[in-house]
Write a structure and sequence with these properties.
It is a single chain. A hairpin with a 5-residue loop joins strand 4 and strand 5. Helix 2 crosses helix 8 and helix 4 runs antiparallel to helix 5. The protein contains 11 helices and 7 strands.
Length: about 300
């Protein structure tokens, strides 16, 4: 994962006295992360090795192919089911209003209507149609299903990504998706030394270099429709795109190391929840797993043209 459990715990502990985030929210994510690490520790006993040669890695990157394929993920059904059940209990404990929906998901898994491995596979392949269809069939909130799928998948993908992170060749991959697993970005940073923009993967925790003046979601590079929002006194800014109306929170290392001491992406994302409020008030949507579709981009463009 993006750091070891002790560093993450320390980062979360530093959030307890923050006015903008409740103690229950901090504890909720602590429980989620602990459950993930419990599985990840079990995965450490499984041999995860990369058989990709240096030449093959370069070839894949030149051709725009992420290094992880579906068959590389060490999905153990028993571990996955254990994590699913524990995560469902954590969500119910945090939000009693989700109890009915969570029970529907538990029942669907028990009845075979919800297949966990298929859920993870469809998340990996970014099959939004599957999620739309399944949420309608099970009558649950799609954001809840996506949240659950993402947090079930993370320990498995991160276990593999840790074996491949040092094999990424920056100059061969400057794309808006992860070179290791092909997913989108969760958070970004501008490096202190030369101001390189680095994206952090939402799914496997890998980091990769990206172009500073370019949207990491729709690839828009028109400077007139790209800008950033700043909040005085903090080392963060919000990079926004007026084409797809997405945003990403960005840590500027020249202005500091983050609210939590060492910059740990998963903790930094939680520590900057107040920036999500700022961005949403300005009409931008939080970056999520599925990129905006061609139809969404077209609708946004037509809307701007009409106004």
């Amino acid at each position: 994962m993006d750091s070891n459990i002790h560093e993450i715990e320390e980062g979360l502990n530093r959030l307890h006295d923050k006015e903008y985030i409740s103690e229950s929210t901090v504890n909720f994510f602590r429980d989620i992360i602990r459950a993930q690490y419990k599985v990840k520790d079990q995965l450490d006993e499984i041999k995860i090795s990369s058989t990709l040669s240096e030449e093959k890695i370069k070839e894949m990157m030149i051709n725009g192919k992420p290094l992880i394929t579906w068959k590389d993920i060490p999905l153990e059904e028993a571990h996955l089911k254990e994590l699913f059940q524990e995560t469902c209990e954590i969500i119910k404990k945090q939000d009693k209003n989700k109890t009915e929906e969570i029970q529907k998901l538990l029942d669907a898994e028990s009845d075979g209507k919800l297949k966990l491995i298929t859920l993870i596979e469809k998340l990996f392949s970014q099959d939004s149609t599957y999620f739309h269809s399944l949420t309608g069939e099970l009558k649950v909130d799609e954001q809840l299903l996506l949240f659950l799928a993402l947090h079930l998948a993370r320990p498995f993908f991160e276990a593999v990504a840790e074996k491949l992170n040092d094999k990424v060749v920056d100059e061969l991959w400057i794309k808006n998706r992860c070179p290791v697993c092909g997913s989108g970005a969760q958070i970004a940073k501008l490096e202190k030394e030369v101001g390189k923009k680095i994206l952090n993967c939402l799914l496997c925790g890998s980091e990769w270099r990206f172009i500073r003046v370019k949207c990491p979601f729709c690839n828009n590079d028109d400077p007139k429709s790209l800008k950033f929002l700043e909040v005085e006194g903090i080392p963060y800014r919000i990079d926004v795109c007026d084409q797809c109306k997405r945003y990403i929170k960005t840590l500027d290392e020249k202005k500091g190391g983050g609210d939590t001491g060492k910059a740990i992406p998963s903790v930094e994302d939680l520590a900057t929840m107040y920036l999500d409020v700022v961005a949403e008030k300005e009409g931008y949507e939080k970056s999520w797993f599925f990129p905006p579709s061609v139809d969404e981009l077209k609708a946004n463009t037509e809307s701007k043209t009409r106004h």
